[in-house]
Amino acid sequence: MIKRIPVDALAVGMYITDLNNDWIPHNSQRKRGVIRREETIEKIRTLGVKYVYIDISRGKDSQDAEPAIDVDRRNEARLQKAGAQAPAMLPKVALADEMEVATAVHSQAQSLVSSFMNNAKVGAAIDVAPIHQLADELQSSVLRNANALSCLGRIREKDNYLLEHSVNVSVLMSLFGNHRKLSADILHQTIVGALLHDLGKILTPEEILHKPARLSPEEFEVMRHHARNSRDILAATEGIGEITLITAAQHHEKLDGSGYPEGLKGEEISEYGRMVAITDVYDAITADRVYHKGMTPTQGLKKLLEWSGDHLDPLLVREFIRCVGLYPVGTLTLLESGRLGVVVETNESDQRLPKVRVMYHTRFRMPITVETIDLAKPGNQDRILRAVDPGDYKLDIRKFLV
Asked: Which of 92, 344, 364, 397 is the most buried (most CB within 10 A)?
């Protein structure tokens, strides 16, 4: 049986199955195995981890440990409660109409961020005007129909993670900032900050940045420098606002002070730093990478709830869930009929009833005619039972998002 246990209750002889620290990029600590020395427990503490998961069938148990299934049920209940409020943004144009524009903007965004990073890396003059224009175009697309860029954000390639992640975090910040009704100027600055939050990685050695194996503690320390490097590069760039600097600099800070680069605590972290931390973690843990299989969107939201309080702002996490929806775009769902459908549009009036694109029948174990179903449409007899993992059905949902 898998259980969750506080790090302070860990003991030699326990078998760790999950360090519960997927928010840490390239974390250097081995993720599973028997604890054989007290030093291992101390290393886990230094990661800022509060709880880990143990397998009591392979190691010691503890009265302080709680069955993982109970943790998941509690997080599911919290997710349902947090998602009870309808999304704040209503699409102004049809998804099909916005998709062509969004595709062009998304492609342009990756190209522009890549160019910006390359220029910064070689010390060339940096023109931020195109970045500001891009931020406005991303915001305009989100306002017309946020589902378009959200769909594109789920179509990813492992080898292009850095650029895709930068663009996706900026889209999520646009969604989040609109939901929170930030002023136009502040929202613009946070989008720019999200686009460039990982700019400092251009100073990270390639052999560390793209290492498929676990990093050594020394290599991980080098990796951690990227947040401060992002701030320093942007601070030396003309045309970058203070909120953009703060957004980029604070994306790895944690409420309990275990984050970096400054180890800020609670209200010491700006509202925008706390927002971008949520969007950064959510996109990172739902992405497939060379050293990490991405969670489903719903699993990702549950993890945000689990990590809230210690690492993430709990009030902002709940607002983020209301913003992206109970079943975010890209979620594969099992319907009552036995069909599988990927969410392609959220529902402005009831998050439980999005539009889904069905493609597979679980009872017959075979593909079916692809069609888009509006679960909120009068006369519809189907409903979502739960979110499922595409890997369990060997489905590539990217094929069905556009």
From this structure: 344
Identical fold at 2-64 and 95-324? no
C-alpha dihedral (320, 326, 329, 331), degrees to nearest 10: 130
* pLDDT score of 106: 95
**CB within 8 A of 343, min separation 6: which ones?**
325, 327, 328, 329, 330, 331, 332, 333, 354, 355, 356
Q: What six digits make up the tokens of 308?
A: 């809230």
Task: Identify whether the C-beta of residue 375 lies closer than 8 Å to the C-beta of residue 354.
Answer: yes
- Copy the structure tokens of residue 253: 């800070």
Structure tokens at 69: 């299934």
The CB-side HSE value for 397 (13 A sphere, CA atoms) comes to 26
Homologous superfamily, domain 95-324: Hypothetical protein af1432 (1.10.3210.10)
Where the chain has pLDDT below 70, the residues are 22-30, 84-88, 158-159, 290-291
What's the CA gap between 125 and 237, in Å, rounded?
A: 9
**pTM, full prediction:** 0.90
Strand segments (E) across 276-365:
332-335, 339-345, 355-361
What is the domain partition of the chain in residue ranges?
2-64, 95-324, 332-400
**pLDDT for residue 24:** 60
Q: Assign domain 2-64 to a CATH class.
A: alpha beta
